[in-house]
Predict the 3D structure of the following.
Amino acid sequence: MAKALGIGGIFFKSKDPVALMAWYQACLGLSDEAKEYASFAPAAMPSNGATVFSPFKSTTSYFAPSKREFMINFIVDDLDGALKQVADGGGTLVGDVQSFDYGRFGWFVDPDGNKVELWQPNAAA
């Protein structure tokens, strides 16, 4: 049986993809290798980080206030700093930072109305 080995990309529509990409590059430090995309090398992932594939029930309110049917999650190295950069860049912070055994989470809505989750994994033991 052939198997999926990981997430190869996240692709979505935007009214101004170049401007939205520039916003992410400025606010979250995404690679500026190109104006249309950023890539993440597996070696950059913290040893205690992971890429998660998780369908949610169609009735979930977890993605609110976004009206989109998806939510992107970025692993970050400094949650508080990343949230400040996003707010300084015009993003709208939503909800309170939450802490769990596996890390801290915060959320924002980007200029296109997408809710984005930021995850700072706890340091590896």
Observations:
- DSSP finds two helices and four strands in the chain.
- The longest strand covers residues 92-100.
- The domain at 57-125 is CATH 3.10.180.10 (2,3-Dihydroxybiphenyl 1,2-Dioxygenase; domain 1).
- Strands lie at 72-75, 92-100, 103-109, 115-121.
